[in-house]
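stage 2 :: seqdesign
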C-alpha cells in the first residue's frame, strides 16, 4: 500500500526558520488577570501589527512558529515570562523588542530579546526553577517568619487543589528550595502601595509581609497559591486579607543557589 502523501502547503507563507529570537516580557497590573491563551492571542495580533516576518508551520492550518516557556498562572504578575519566535527573515532583536512592545497593550511589556544561537538547545531546557514574591497583606513579618520556619521544618506539606478532574492533593514542601521573609521597606514597597483588591478605609494601613520563594519546577507544577495555602494550613499562617503574587525570575538553578538568566548564554555567544 503506497504511503500517504504529505499535504501540500497551500498558505503561500514562508515556513523555513532562518532566525530564532527569544524574548522576555512582563505581565503587570490588571493584566495579571489575563489568561495565557489571551496573552498568546495578544502576541499574535501584535506580531501582525508590527510586521514581524514570522515563519509558519506547513499544512492547511498554518500557525506562526511560537514556542512558550512555562507561563505564570492567571492572577499572578510576572517580570520574567519567556517566548521564542521563529522568523523567516532576520531582524535586529532590539528593534523587534521595541516594535512588539509598542504594539502590545500597556501591562504586557516586552523587556529584552536575543538571537538564539544554533547550538543553544531549547529555551525550556534552561528553566527549572522560579523566584516568586508573595506580598501578604494583613500579616506581620513575625507571623510570616514563624509560618515559613514551620513549613521548612516539615517533610511534607500536602494541599488540595481543585482541577477540572476534581480535587487533587499536591505536596508543596519538596519543590521549595528557599524562603525569605522581607519587610515592604526592604524591597522598596510602600505600605500604602496595596493590591487593587484590598479593602480601603480610614486609619493606618494593615500590616504587610513579603515572602520570596524559590520553587523548583515539578510535575504537577507547585503554584504560588499552593505555597500560600501550605503556609496557612500546614504552618498556621493567618489567612491574609489579600495576596499579590509576582514572578521575579526564571532560570536554571546554579550551584550557588541563584537563577541563571535563560537569555544569558545566547547573549554571551552572540
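stage 2 :: out
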Amino acid at each position: 500500500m503506497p504511503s500517504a502523501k504529505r499535504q501540500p502547503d497551500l498558505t503561500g507563507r514562508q515556513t523555513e526558520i532562518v532566525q530564532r529570537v527569544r524574548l522576555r516580557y512582563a505581565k503587570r497590573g490588571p493584566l495579571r488577570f489575563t489568561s495565557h491563551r489571551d496573552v498568546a492571542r495578544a502576541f499574535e495580533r501584535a506580531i501582525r501589527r508590527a510586521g514581524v516576518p514570522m515563519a509558519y508551520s506547513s499544512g492547511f492550518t498554518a500557525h506562526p512558529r511560537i514556542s512558550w516557556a512555562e507561563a505564570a498562572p492567571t492572577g499572578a504578575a510576572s517580570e520574567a515570562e519567556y517566548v521564542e519566535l521563529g522568523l523567516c527573515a532576520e531582524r535586529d532583536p532590539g528593534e523587534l523588542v521595541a516594535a512588539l512592545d509598542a504594539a502590545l497593550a500597556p501591562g504586557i511589556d516586552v523587556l529584552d530579546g536575543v538571537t538564539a544561537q544554533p547550538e543553544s538547545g531549547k529555551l525550556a531546557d534552561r528553566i527549572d526553577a522560579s523566584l516568586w514574591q508573595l506580598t501578604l497583606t494583613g500579616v506581620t513579618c513575625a507571623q510570616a517568619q514563624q509560618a515559613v520556619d514551620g513549613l521548612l521544618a516539615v517533610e511534607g506539606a500536602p494541599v488540595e487543589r481543585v482541577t477540572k478532574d476534581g480535587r487533587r492533593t499536591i505536596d508543596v514542601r519538596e519543590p521549595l528550595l528557599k524562603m525569605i521573609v522581607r519587610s515592604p521597606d526592604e524591597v522598596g514597597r510602600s505600605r500604602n502601595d496595596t493590591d487593587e483588591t484590598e479593602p480601603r478605609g480610614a486609619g493606618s494601613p494593615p500590616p504587610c509581609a513579603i515572602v520570596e520563594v524559590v520553587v523548583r519546577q515539578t510535575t504537577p507544577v507547585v503554584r504560588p497559591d499552593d505555597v500560600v495555602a501550605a503556609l496557612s494550613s500546614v504552618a498556621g499562617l493567618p489567612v491574609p486579607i489579600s495576596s499579590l503574587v509576582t514572578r521575579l525570575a526564571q532560570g536554571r538553578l546554579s550551584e550557588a543557589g541563584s537563577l541563571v538568566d535563560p537569555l544569558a548564554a545566547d547573549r554571551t555567544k552572540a
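stage 3 :: structure notes
- Confidence is low (pLDDT under 50) at residues 1-11, 190-194.
- The first helix runs from residue 36 to 50.
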